[in-house]
C-alpha cells in the first residue's frame, strides 16, 4: 500500500505471510487532526498462532494512536496495556513519532528495527533486544539460536528497558525480522537504491533470499525524493 496526503510524507507498507501458517505482523499509522505528522508502528507477534497475531494488531494500533506529545516510550507502554488486556499473546514493537526538528523519535522492544534512509545512506537506529546482542555486547560467544531469543517484549518490558533513539532524517524504514535477517543492511540498501523501490520490493527481496518468517516493512520516503521525482511544468 502506498499512501499520500497533502502536507504529509509519502509512505509505503507491505507485508507477506511467507512460509508461516499465518501472518502475525501488524502495522499502524495515524495522523491526529492538527498533529505534527504521522505516527508509525510495526509489531511482530511472538510465535505463529492467532494469539500472537492479535497481540501484534493490538500493539500496533495502540502505539500509533498515542498522542505525539506523550512521546514514543509512552506509545510502547500504551501498546503494553492493550496487549495485557488480552488473555495471551505477545509481540515486539518499534514506534516512530514525528520530532520537532523534522525527523523522528524512536522507541522499541525486541528485534523490530528502525533505519534512516536519505536516498544514499542507510543507518540503523535500533539495537536488537536479543540474547545474541546481550552476549555480543559483553564480548561473549554467540550462537545462531540466540539471534531469535528476545530479551524484551511488549507484554513483559519495564519502562526503563525500552530502547530509544532519534534521527533528523525524514526518510524512515521500519522492519520486522523477516525483512532484516535475510537481507541485512547491504541487501536493504541495494533494494532501496533502485528507482521507485519501497516496502513491497523489500518484502519480495526478503522472501526471494530465503526468508522463513512473516516479512513486513513501513517505508517513509525522504523528502528529498519528492524533489527529484516530481516534475514542475514550465511554460515555454
Verbal overview:
It is a single chain. This protein is an alpha+beta fold and 236 residues long. The chain has one domain (18-224): PPM-type phosphatase domain (Phosphatase 2c, domain 1). Helices cover 29% and strands 25% of the residues. It has six helices and eleven strands. It has helices spanning 50-64, 72-84, 131-137, 177-192, 199-208, 223-229, and strands spanning 2-3, 11-16, 25-30, 39-45, 91-98, 104-109, 113-117, 122-124, 163-167, 172-175, 215-220. The strands form two sheets. The chain has a six-stranded antiparallel sheet, with helices on one face. A hairpin with a 4-residue loop joins strand 7 and strand 8. Helix 1 packs antiparallel against helix 2 (72-84) and helix 4 packs across helix 5. The longest helix is centred in the last third of the chain and has 16 residues, at 177-192. The chain is globular, with a radius of gyration of 17 Å. Residues 225-236 have low confidence and may be disordered. This is Serine/threonine protein phosphatase. It comes from Amycolatopsis eburnea. Residues 10-222 form the PPM-type phosphatase domain. InterPro entries: PPM-type-like_dom_sf, PPM-type_phosphatase-like_dom.
Amino acid at each position: 500500500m502506498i499512501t499520500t496526503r497533502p502536507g504529509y510524507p509519502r509512505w509505503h507498507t507491505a507485508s507477506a505471510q511467507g512460509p508461516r501458517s499465518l501472518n502475525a505482523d501488524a502495522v499502524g499509522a495515524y495522523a491526529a487532526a492538527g498533529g505534527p505528522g504521522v505516527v508509525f508502528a510495526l509489531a511482530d507477534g511472538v510465535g505463529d498462532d492467532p494469539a500472537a497475531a492479535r497481540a501484534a494488531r493490538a500493539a500496533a494500533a495502540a502505539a500509533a494512536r498515542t498522542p505525539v506529545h506523550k512521546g514514543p516510550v509512552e506509545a510502547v507502554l500504551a501498546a503494553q496495556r492493550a496487549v495485557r488486556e488480552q488473555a495471551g499473546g505477545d509481540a515486539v514493537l518499534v514506534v516512530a513519532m514525528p520530532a520537532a526538528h523534522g525527523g523522528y523519535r524512536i522507541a522499541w522492544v525486541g528485534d523490530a528495527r528502525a533505519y534512516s534512509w536519505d536516498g544514499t545512506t542507510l543507518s540503523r537506529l535500533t539495537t536488537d533486544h536479543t540474547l545474541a546482542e546481550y552476549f555480543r555486547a559483553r564480548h561473549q560467544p554467540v550462537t545462531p539460536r540466540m539471534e531469535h531469543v528476545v530479551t524484551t517484549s511488549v507484554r513483559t518490558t519495564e519502562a526503563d528497558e525500552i530502547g530509544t533513539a532519534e534521527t533528523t532524517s525524514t526518510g524512515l524504514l521500519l522492519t520486522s525480522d523477516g525483512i532484516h535477517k535475510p537481507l541485512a543492511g547491504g541487501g536493504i540498501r541495494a533494494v532501496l537504491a533502485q528507482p521507485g523501490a519501497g516496502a513491497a520490493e523489500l518484502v519480495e527481496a526478503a522472501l526471494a533470499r530465503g526468508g522463513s518468517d512473516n516479512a513486513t516493512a513501513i517505508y517513509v520516503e525522504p523528502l528529498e525524493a519528492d524533489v527529484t521525482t516530481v516534475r514542475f511544468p514550465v511554460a515555454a
